[in-house]
C-alpha cells in the first residue's frame, strides 16, 4: 500500500511517520524547492509533544524544546506583574512538558529523520485524479505520481482542499498583525525560563524560551490589512505602536533584526466538516487553518497524524480508515479553531470591555484557571 503525502511541513512529515508505523509506504512531495517556514517558532504544548514521542521523534523535542517552566503576564505600560506562576502543576497533570521550538529547526529535523533524499522538492500540484482504487497527482514540472491514497498536508493555501470539500474557501482576516522572530535571551526583557507576555490596549508582546539560549518573540497589534509596511520601517513601526510601553518591551524592540523578523497578517478559515473525499484526506492547516492564539496549530496537525495512524492500525481498508479519521477529528479541530478565534477576539480588543475584564482577571489570577484551561485543551487530544 502506498500513500502520496502532499507537503513536507510538520503535518506531512508526521503523517508519513504515522503511516510508516503501520507498514504503509509513503512518497512525500513538497511544492517549494527550499524549505523557508513562515514564522520563527511555535509552541508545541504537551499534547503535541506526546504525539512526537508516539511517532518516534521525541528526541527532536528534547533537543529543540526551551526551558519554559513558568508563565507570567505583565501590564504592558507599567511593566507590573499581573500574574506569575509555575507550569509544574500542568506538567504533573498531563504527564508531559510544553516545548517552544524553532519552526525551521523542527521541520528540518523531521525531514532529516525521515531522510531528506527521500523527499521530492519542487513538486507543486497542478491537478489530481482519483478512482475507487488510486489517486494520481500531476505536478507543474510535468511529472506525476500514483498511490493508493493521498494525504494532503499542503497548508492553509491548499491546492487539494477544494477538490475534497467541493468549493473554494476564503481566508478570514483576524484583524491583527503579528511580528515574530528570534533574539538572544536577555534577562532585561524577561526571565530565561518563563513564557512572559505584556498586555494592554488590545496588544500583546510575548517571549518564550527555545533551545540555544534564544527567545521566540512576537508582537500583536490590531490593524487593518494591507498596510504599506515592510522590513525597512519595521523597528519604527513597532516603536510607534508600543510608544510608552514598559522598558522590557523597548529593550526587545531594540534587540530585533528586521532582516529576519516576520510580519504576518493573521487569518483563519471557517471550519468545515468534510476532511475526506474517497481516498484523499486533508490534514493540518489544509483541514483546519487557525489563528495562533491558543498555540494549537502545530499540535493539531500532529494529533491528526497520530489519529490517522491509529485508524489504519484498526483496518487496512483505505476508505474505512479515512472516514474513521474524519469522524474522529472533525469535531476536535473545529473546536480548536473556534476556541482560538474566541481567544483572539478577547486578546486583541474586539470588544474592549471584554478585553479589560480579561486584564482584571489576570490581576487576581493565581494560575489555577489558566492551567485548567490549558489542561482541558491538552487532554482533549488522542494521547491524553
TrEMBL record:
For this protein, what reaction is catalysed? urate + NADH + O2 + H(+) = 5-hydroxyisourate + NAD(+) + H2O
Q: Does the keyword Signal apply?
A: no
Per UniProt, the enzyme's principal EC class comes to oxidoreductase
Q: Keywords in alphabetical order, please.
A: FAD, Flavoprotein, Monooxygenase, NAD, Oxidoreductase, Purine metabolism
Q: In which pathway does it act?
A: Purine metabolism; urate degradation
Q: Which SUPFAM superfamilies does the record associate with it?
A: FAD/NAD(P)-binding domain
Any Pfam family from its record, for instance, is: FAD_binding_3
Q: Which residues form the FAD-binding domain?
A: 2-337
Q: Would you identify the family this protein belongs to, as annotated?
A: Belongs to the FAD-dependent urate hydroxylase family.
Name listed for the protein in its UniProt record: FAD-dependent urate hydroxylase
Amino acid at each position: 500500500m502506498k500513500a502520496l503525502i502532499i507537503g513536507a511541513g510538520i503535518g506531512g512529515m508526521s503523517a508519513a511517520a504515522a503511516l510508516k508505523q503501520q507498514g504503509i509506504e509513503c512518497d512525500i512531495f513538497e511544492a517549494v524547492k527550499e524549505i523557508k517556514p513562515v514564522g520563527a517558532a511555535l509552541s508545541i504544548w504537551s499534547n503535541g509533544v506526546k504525539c512526537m514521542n508516539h511517532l518516534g521523534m521525541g528526541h527532536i523535542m528534547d533537543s529543540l524544546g526551551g526551558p519554559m517552566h513558568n508563565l507570567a503576564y505583565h501590564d504592558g505600560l507599567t511593566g507590573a506583574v499581573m500574574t506569575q506562576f509555575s507550569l509544574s502543576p500542568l506538567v504533573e497533570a498531563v504527564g508531559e512538558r510544553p516545548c517552544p521550538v524553532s519552526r525551521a529547526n523542527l521541520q528540518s529535523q523531521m525531514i532529516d529523520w525521515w531522510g531528506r533524499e527521500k523527499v521530492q522538492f519542487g513538486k507543486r500540484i497542478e491537478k489530481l485524479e482519483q478512482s475507487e482504487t488510486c489517486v494520481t497527482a500531476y505536478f507543474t514540472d510535468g511529472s506525476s505520481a500514483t498511490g493508493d491514497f493521498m494525504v494532503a498536508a499542503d497548508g492553509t493555501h491548499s491546492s487539494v482542499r477544494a477538490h475534497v470539500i467541493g468549493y473554494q474557501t476564503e481566508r478570514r482576516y483576524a484583524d491583527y498583525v503579528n511580528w515574530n522572530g528570534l533574539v538572544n535571551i536577555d534577562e532585561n526583557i524577561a526571565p530565561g525560563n518563563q513564557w512572559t507576555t505584556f498586555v494592554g490596549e488590545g496588544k500583546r508582546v510575548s517571549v518564550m524560551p527555545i533551545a540555544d539560549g534564544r527567545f521566540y518573540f512576537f508582537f500583536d497589534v490590531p490593524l487593518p490589512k494591507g498596510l504599506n509596511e515592510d522590513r525597512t520601517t519595521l523597528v519604527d513601526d513597532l516603536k510607534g505602536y508600543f510608544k510608552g510601553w514598559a522598558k522590557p518591551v523597548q529593550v526587545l524592540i531594540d534587540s530585533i533584526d528586521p532582516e529576519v523578523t516576520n510580519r504576518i497578517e493573521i487569518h483563519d478559515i471557517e471550519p468545515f466538516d468534510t476532511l475526506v473525499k474517497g481516498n484523499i484526506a486533508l490534514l493540518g492547516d489544509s483541514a483546519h487553518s487557525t489563528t495562533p492564539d491558543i498555540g494549537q496549530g502545530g499540535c493539531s496537525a500532529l494529533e491528526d497524524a497520530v489519529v490517522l495512524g491509529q485508524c489504519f492500525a484498526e483496518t487496512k481498508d483505505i476508505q474505512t480508515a479515512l472516514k474513521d479519521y474524519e469522524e474522529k477529528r472533525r469535531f476536535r479541530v473545529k473546536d480548536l479553531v473556534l476556541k482560538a478565534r474566541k481567544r483572539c477576539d478577547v486578546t486583541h480588543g474586539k470588544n474592549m470591555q471584554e478585553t479589560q475584564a480579561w486584564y482584571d482577571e489576570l490581576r487576581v489570577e493565581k494560575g489555577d484557571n489558566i492551567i485548567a484551561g490549558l489542561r482541558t485543551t491538552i487532554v482533549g487530544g488522542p494521547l491524553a
